[in-house]
Amino acid sequence: MILYVNACPRGDSRTDRLARALLGRLGGEREELRLSDAGLVPLSEERLEQRTALIEARRYDDPMFALARQFQRAEEIVVAAPYWDLSFPAILKLYVENIYVSGLVSEYTAEGIPHGLCRAKKLWYVTTAGGPYQPDFSYGYWQSLAQQFFGIPETELIAVGMLDVEGFDSEALLAAKIEEIRNGVCS
Ligand SMILES: Cc1cc2nc3c(=O)[nH]c(=O)nc-3n(C[C@H](O)[C@H](O)[C@H](O)COP(=O)(O)O)c2cc1C
Fold first, then answer.
1. What's the mean per-residue pLDDT of the chain?
2. What is the pLDDT of residue 126?
3. Tens digit of each residue's pLDDT (9 = 90 or more) over 85-123
4. From ligand 1's centre to the CA of 140, what distance in Å?
5. Residue among 20, 36, 83 whose CB has most ligand 1 atoms within 8 A, to mutate
6. Which residues lie closer than 8 Å to 158 by C-beta, 6 or more apart?
7. From 43, 80, 151, 171, which residue has the greatest number of CB atoms within 10 Å?
8. For position 66, what pLDDT does the model report?
9. Concatenated DSSP letters for 22-67?
């Protein structure tokens, strides 16, 4: 199953267009999670206590961990998020808080080294930016999470920048990237 984590708030999202071109190429069975419809809430003190108790009791089948279980069992993951404030929309961080469950997607060895438990072999990060794109706090963050903590060995970035800068033809830039995706230039 390919999990599409859609963190694009705008209905007419250009990032989502790129992601759908990629999903079309990847084919196969897909589950789409549109984060704006997922009812995500921040981890309050009460929810944290509830979560800790469930983890200690190894109750990973609890509904609180449904999104973490979905992420853990996905065979490939596509995360799509526009570039906001050098990073991504806050709802995507809420998603990370909800899926990062010790004992389900990641654990620590007796030596204190993180060991990933996710099934996916690859995570794609798809984004578009109004100006120049710097990956440090968006793709870079997801790359670290995937490879160092979730056990997902391969990550790949698909990004198009300069879409809101006068003098740049945003439609042409997007069309060129979609063509690359369809032709498999993005591996
Ligand atoms: C709240 C907000 C913050 C943004 N921050 C940045 C930014 O830091 N750097 C940048 O280059 N563009 C920024 N942009 C522009 C978006 O990255 C750009 O318009 C992008 O293509 C939007 O993607 P979408 O069409 O998928 O919504 C921002 C846009 C919004 C709405």
1. 96
2. 98
3. 999 999 999 999 999 999 999 999 999 999 999 999 999
4. 17
5. 83
6. 18, 22, 124, 125, 126, 127, 177, 181, 186
7. 80
8. 97
9. HHHHH-S-EEEEEGGGTT-----HHHHHHHHHHHHTT-TTSGGGHH
Give the residue whose CA is nearest to atom 8 of ligand 1. Answer: 85
**Percent share of the chain, pLDDT over 70:** 99
Residues 6 or more apart whose Cβ sits within 8 Å of residue 137: 86, 87
Residue ranges around ligand 1 (CB below 6 Å): 8, 10, 13-16, 82-86, 128-131, 163-164
Which ligand 1 atom sits nearest the alpha carbon of residue 87? Answer: 8
**Choice from 85, 86, 134, 171 to test ligand 1 binding pocket (greatest atom count within 8 A of CB):** 85
